[in-house]
Design a protein that fits this description.
- The protein has helices at about 20-30, 40-60, 75-85, 135-145, 175-190; strands spanning about 5, 10-15, 15-20, 90-100, 105-115, 120-125, 150-160, 165-170.
- Helix 1 packs across helix 5 (about 175-190), helix 2 (about 40-60) packs across helix 3 (about 75-85) and helix 4 crosses helix 5.
- It is α+β, with helices and mostly antiparallel strands.
- The strands form two sheets. It has a five-stranded mixed sheet, with helices on both faces. A three-stranded antiparallel sheet has the order 1-2-3, with no helix packed on it.
- It has a single domain (about 5-190), classed as 3-Layer(aba) Sandwich (Trna Endonuclease, Chain: A, domain 1).
- Strand 6 (about 120-125), helix 4 (about 135-145) and strand 7 (about 150-160) form a beta-alpha-beta unit.
- It contains five helices and eight strands, in the order E-E-E-H-H-H-E-E-E-H-E-E-H.
């Protein structure tokens, strides 16, 4: 299987065939709704989010050149560092792209981690704004990339421009209910694209 992502079009292709992403599915059916945001505000937030994700990624790998960062990104990076220092994380995967062949969707998980000395396995999504209610469905879909999705504690970490962070936890016991919402969204997404007979 060949999985490719085009960052310009934000499209995933599996063996050359376009496959929807987790966020595309949730947005298409209206669970993720940015319609109240002016286009320029959304574009600015997307650019900032991408820059913060890249800074955190390189920082976690030890390759960050902080002198190359825009000033507005630094507070979010400092918030990430505070979060990272709050627990002795061991990153198993960073910015991990995958494909769920059974359900036919792709996505990018920000972090998969273990906490040394504990049995906890964590799937983590980084937000540079408020973690919306739909984040739990998003991370549930990412959990289904793995063999036993209920085994993971799903988390969202909000990074704030005042250098603070806030954590939201979605326990494994809630995974089935959260994934059911995503699965229903995926059915609607596909139905909207079904060709008439």
């Amino acid at each position: 299987m060949s999985l490719r992502f085009d960052p310009d079009s934000h499209l995933y292709r599996v063996d050359g065939i376009i496959v929807p992403s987790v966020t595309q599915v949730l947005e298409d059916v209206g669970i993720v709704d940015y319609s109240r945001l002016p286009g320029s505000t959304r574009e600015m937030a997307l650019r900032r989010g991408s820059a913060v994700h890249a800074a955190c990624h390189y920082d976690d790998e030890g390759d960050l050149d902080e002198t190359q960062l825009a000033e507005e990104i630094l507070p979010y990076l400092r918030a990430w560092r505070k979060f990272r220092a709050s627990v002795c994380w061991k990153w198993d995967r960073i910015e991990f792209r995958s494909h769920n062949a059974k359900y036919g969707y792709c996505g990018q998980l920000d972090r998969a981690a273990t906490i040394p000395g504990k049995s906890a396995q964590v799937l983590l999504d980084i937000k540079t704004g408020v973690a919306q209610h739909w984040t739990r469905y998003q991370v549930a879909a990412y959990a289904a990339f793995f063999e036993n999705p209920r085994a993971y504690l799903r988390m969202a970490v909000e990074l704030h421009k005042d250098e603070t962070f806030k954590v939201h936890e979605y326990p494994g016991r809630d995974w089935a209910a959260d994934f059911a919402v995503f699965s229903a969204a995926l059915v609607v997404y596909r139905e909207k694209r079904r060709k008439p007979i």
